[in-house]
Design a protein that fits this description.
With 191 residues, the chain is an alpha+beta fold. The chain is built from 4 helices and 8 strands.
Length: 191
């Protein structure tokens, strides 16, 4: 007699299929990144992030770009999209949508250079497993060195989190920054 509930063998097979698919997606993204790098350099852009996700029954290849030289605009996104569209089509056999955009205010950070660039900025970080009794942290990047993120917490303690333990991290944009910007603009305009 079989009891109701998930079939452990089925669950294991599904996990294995998803893990293999995830590994394959990572390899395709790695190859894709190498192939689009010359176009990024040609357009004086940097790859901020790259992901292949399922959302609402559709697949999306999302390419997030930015420029340290200027404000990234729609023309940058269109120019890169037209250059990399055929590369994406040749690498991904299933139906998908290619999206090229900027990473937005709460940009994902994952590379050493990101942590150095956004030193003293507030982030929200998730770890792969429990670290210091938690998996979610919010604090200010104090520094990054020796593959370790030094995160200053609200109570002024500094957590030392190895980057290898990080699942994902994003900048935190607070509304107070917008209020301060609007206020300072109003003061400048009143003179």
């Amino acid at each position: 007699k079989q009891e109701s509930g998930a079939n452990p063998l089925f669950s294991f097979k599904l996990y294995k299929i998803l893990r293999i698919r995830g590994d394959l997606v990572d390899k395709v993204l790695e190859t894709f990144e190498k192939q689009i790098t010359p176009y990024l350099k040609e357009l004086k852009l940097e790859l901020a992030d790259l992901e292949y996700v399922q959302d609402g029954g559709y697949s999306y290849l999302r390419v997030y770009i930015e420029s340290e030289e200027k404000q990234t605009d729609l023309e940058d996104c269109i120019a890169l999209s037209s250059k990399i569209d055929s590369i994406a089509d040749s690498m991904i056999k299933e139906k998908f949508f290619l999206e090229v955009s900027t990473p937005g205010l709460e940009k994902r950070i994952k590379k050493e250079k990101d942590f150095i660039r956004f030193n003293r900025e507030k982030i929200k970080m998730f770890t792969k497993s429990q670290f210091d009794g938690k998996k979610s942290f919010e604090g200010v990047i104090h520094k990054f060195e020796n593959d370790t993120i030094y995160l200053k917490m609200e109570n002024d303690t500094i957590l030392e989190i190895p980057i290898s333990k990080m699942k994902k991290a994003n900048l935190v944009y607070e509304l107070t920054e917008i209020k301060e910007e609007v206020w300072s603009r109003k003061i400048r305009e009143s003179f």
